[in-house]
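pipeline stage [seq->struct] | target=V-type proton ATPase subunit C | organism=Cirrhinus molitorella | residues=361
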Amino acid sequence: MTATTRTNNLSTNNKFNIPDLKVGTLDVLVGLSDELAKLDAFVESVVKKVAQYMADVLEDSRDKVQENLLANGVDLVTYVTRFQWDMAKYPIKQSLKNISEIISKAISQIDNDLKARALAYNNLKGNLQNLERKNAGSLLTRSLADIVKKEDFVLDSEYLITMLVVVPKTNYTDWQRTYETLAEMVVPRSTNLLFEDHESGLFSVTLFRKAIDDFRLKARENKFTVRDFQYNEEEMKADKEEMTRLSTDKKKQFGPLVRWLKVNFSEAFIAWIHIKALRVFVESVLRYGLPVNFQAMLLQPNKKNMKKLREVLYDLYKHLDSSAAAIIDQSAMDIPGLNLSQQEYYPYVYYKIDCNLLDFK
């Protein structure tokens, strides 16, 4: 505390309480050391996945996301700085291997559940977006079902049919002048403007069925686009109902999904910090031997002083391990794209906890 906080304010420190865990045998510890490293990476990835999916579901409103990403009901930094081992969930009478297996099983379950829930919700969201996309956009591509009415069409006629044509706004005069002569058998004065967007208008026109192909061809030559559209009340009603159903389903699933993410984010994050505690314990026993006699500390470095903090800690503890001297320079080199965490080695046991779990777009 004197070296890092009182004189030069390099970091904010808290005691990190690790209970009296069962040590077991040396070879188990050595094996466990590797297993815990893998488990640490896996659980961190699940914590980040749950957080990222929470951001996707809440559609990236940052404040909303942050207030849902809590551990045991408090924000992450508070949870870590006041860390207390959960005796009920991870009984310390069990061996370290058993504790790590309890965590591994629980987090694998969360990972699998997340995949299933995300798939179901994403499908729903995707289908809804496709329908919404159909009802928006240009008149050349969008669904016309919510634009036209029954009375716009000549229906149930053996000989006549009403076609829908998209005409650019700049060509309205051309359309009015030429539509009756684009093919034989166009009903005179049968055109009506049904709808406009900012680029074009949707016109109806009635003609004899046998003139359809001819009319299409001539319309295209004149930059008028005939839309393929059959007025079908049943179909249009079904589409509308589908949209309502998907929208209702999405709303219904949203609340329970956010609650599930909130609960399981907390579970996963808590498990992750317990793994950090296990790793500190195992590594310290392997390094410093028995009886267990060490203190774990949590340091929140002040950003600008990271390098200085490393130097101070190195000077303080280099007597514990001479082989670390050669490696101390590594942390000073920042090589883009190269992850040095595998090679980070200090004369003290060190693990990083990253509480910034989200890349906001």
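stage status: PASS
auto-comment: The radius of gyration is 34 Å. The beta strands are 11-15, 160-168, 192-196, 200-208, 225-227, 297-301.
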